[in-house]
Design goal:
heterodimer; A: 428 residues; mainly alpha; two-stranded antiparallel ribbon; 16 helices; disordered C terminus; B: 201 residues; alpha+beta; Rieske Iron-sulfur Protein; 23% helix; elongated
């Protein structure tokens, strides 16, 4: 795509295939010889980890669907049937449930990495927007998947979240109610709701996979950003994707898989809520409704705003604002490394997201509510005020002349002999 | 050479009105296709609306003969909890004493009355049956079931209902007194068939 093809079909079959459907050429050019900046750090390994998580979720999900029954009176029992009777059912379900948490953990790190290093800035705006779209689809998919357990938390999460749409009644009377009944397929959350959530929960991961293909395509046109945020200036500043980054990504994936396995085998329910082991009861709301940890910051924003319509708008706006980041940030420098003022605001934003996560798990009263409002205000101010204004007034630190220079320091003259291609690590 | 090809070498019959005719045909064809697409899409969307079996469960009859003053029951109607409270004299007086102007939501939200009826206690309680309050027991914020039906429940500062999800409070006429809920709890269409029997829906 963005670099000249270096694929040479060798066997007769490869030549025959290459003239008809050049899949081998695309695979070779994009995933073997693809020129990748040589200074990528471990924060760049989460893209590969996310691909692994998507495949893991689809694989475990497809086999769980062979045993799960999406009917209001049988769903909860079928989940317990998977846990107790189905061969390896406990492993498959725990891997799928913990996998959702691990998927979000990796996605959030991946997003913060993009924010820190300015990976959303030109020419990577479409790449960033597709990433936010994937995050949005992941949120919808995880929400629908959680509902399928049909425990108390599942049921009331569906009730509360679908009721967010009823706030449209405050804009056009009747519209919200009509929309919510259309989503429910009845006058309350019930059997018809469960079957449609099941159908869409099966569909959405494949839509995500499709958008992931576009995301990688959009990545491979300009190529990777890198920790310095400056463009690759010569082929000597890149390495072929394989074996250098397949190995680096693979090593990071192994470490990530260890964390994943620790949760699956030693703490499979730590990230969940015990109330979801109580079957759904439409006549009793749990004392405290709490979403899964990966939704807590958004839940805190919803509850911080004491107005139904604006609360719902804040929840949705917290994600939608990400779409506009490429144009909200006015700085000409990509990497936060060279942004002495913005750096502090960035880390304050990271702390804000963690704090909102904690506050989302606490009851919305007293000091928690006040803190929730302060952090919610900063969440939006970071995007709407800090990004445009700091980018405008800040004087960035001096950028290195090139990626090579950032690694080796300023060079008097280029090295007499280029480092041998086979041991580029020696140069790093 | 291709760039030197002139229309003279490939004589295509040209008519003055050709473009106009094509435009009309294109717009007409496109329009029909759009209508066809819309008609095809509608069943795919409308199938999600409440189906005939959900609509057929639209009424339910409840026997109230065992309900003493101060007691309440919860029944199901259209999959929703319906709160029926037999209110005490004290609860009725407390509800009547509140001026409508002091309420968060001054509308009665009573399906048996016009949409603009004010939220007086008279408009909230049963018609000519002041002690009876029949309403959909769903918090108008995000759909949780408020506490207050059982004798031991915390009922909030106004003696009615308290929603444990986000702290909304309702008075003894089911009117919201403390947010974030924006509206009074809704009153379903219902009628008393006799002194001890009510039909909801």
């Amino acid at each position: 795509m963005a670099h000249p093809s270096s694929y040479e079909p060798t066997t007769g079959f490869e030549k025959w295939l290459d003239a008809r459907l050049p899949v081998m050429r695309v695979m070779s050019d994009q995933f073997i010889t693809f020129p990748t900046p040589r200074n990528l750090n471990y924060w760049w390994t989460f893209g590969g980890i996310l691909v692994f998580m998507l495949i893991s979720q689809i694989a475990t999900g497809i086999v769980l669907a062979m045993h799960y029954i999406p009917a209001a009176d049988r769903a909860f029992d079928s989940v317990e049937h998977i846990m107790r009777d189905v061969n390896w059912g406990w492993l498959l379900r725990y891997t799928h449930a913990v996998g959702a948490s691990m998927f979000f953990l990796a996605a959030y790190i991946h997003t913060f990495r993009g924010l820190y290093y300015g990976s959303y800035k030109a020419p990577r705006e479409i790449l960033w927007i597709l990433g936010v779209l994937i995050l949005l689809l992941m949120i919808a998919t995880a929400f629908m998947g959680y509902s399928l357990v049909w425990g108390q938390m599942s049921f009331w999460a569906v009730t509360v979240i679908t009721n967010l749409f009823s706030s449209l009644d405050l804009v056009i009377p009747g519209l919200g109610t009509q929309l919510v009944q259309w989503i429910w397929g009845g006058f309350s959350v019930g059997g018809p709701t469960l079957t449609r959530l099941y159908s869409l929960h099966y569909l959405f991961p494949f839509i995500i996979a499709g958008v992931v293909v576009l995301h990688i395509w959009a990545l491979h046109i300009p190529g990777n950003n890198n920790p310095t945020g400056i463009d690759v200036k010569s082929p000597r500043e890149t390495l072929p994707f394989h074996p250098y980054y397949t190995m680096k990504d693979g090593f990071a994936l192994v470490l990530f898989a260890i964390l994943f396995a620790l949760f699956v085998f030693y703490a499979p329910n730590t990230l969940g809520h015990p109330d979801n082991y109580i079957p759904a009861n439409p006549l009793q709301t749990p004392q405290h409704i709490v979403p899964e940890w990966y939704f807590l910051p958004f839940y805190a924003i919803l509850r911080a705003i004491p107005n139904k319509l604006f609360g719902a708008a804040g929840l949705i706006g917290a994600i939608v604002v990400l779409f506009f980041v490429p144009w909200l940030d006015t700085s000409r420098v990509r990497s936060t490394r060279y942004r002495p003022i913005y750096k502090w605001f960035f880390w304050a934003f990271v702390i804000t997201c963690v704090a909102l996560g904690y506050l989302g798990s606490q009851p919305p009263e007293g000091g928690y509510l006040i803190l929730g409002r302060i952090f919610t205000a900063y969440y939006f101010l970071f995007f709407l005020l800090v990004m445009p204004v700091v980018g405008w007034i800040e004087k960035p630190k001096g950028l290195p002349g090139s990626i090579t220079e950032s690694v080796l320091g300023p060079q008097e003259a280029p090295p007499a002999a280029a480092p041998p291609r086979r041991q580029p690590e020696a140069a790093l | 050479m291709a760039e030197n090809v002139t229309p003279a070498q490939f004589p295509i019959p040209q008519h003055e009105d050709d473009h106009t005719r094509r435009d009309v045909i294109m717009i007409a064809a496109g329009g029909f296709a759009a209508v066809g697409f819309g008609l095809g899409l509608w069943p795919l969307l409308d199938q999600m609306n409440p189906d005939q079996s959900a609509l057929s469960l639209a009424t339910t009859e409840v026997d109230l003969s065992h309900l003493e003053a101060g007691q309440a029951i919860t029944v199901m109607w259209r999959g929703k909890p319906i709160f029926i409270r037999h209110r005490t004299e004290k609860e009725i007086e407390a509800a009547k004493a509140v001026p409508v102007d002091d309420l968060i939501d001054p509308i009665a939200r009573n399906a048996n009355l016009p949409d603009t009826a004010p939220a007086t206690d008279q408009n909230r309680a049963g018609k000519d049956r002041e002690p009876w309050l029949v309403m959909i027991g769903i918090c108008t914020h995000l759909g949780c079931i408020p506490k207050g039906q059982s004798p031991g429940d915390y009922k909030g500062n106004y003696g009615g209902w308290f929603c444990p999800c986000h702290g909304s409070q309702y008075d003894t006429a089911g009117r919201v007194r403390v947010g974030p809920a924006p509206q009074n709890m809704a009153i379903p269409p219902y009628a008393f068939l006799s002194d001890t029997k009510v039909k909801i829906g």
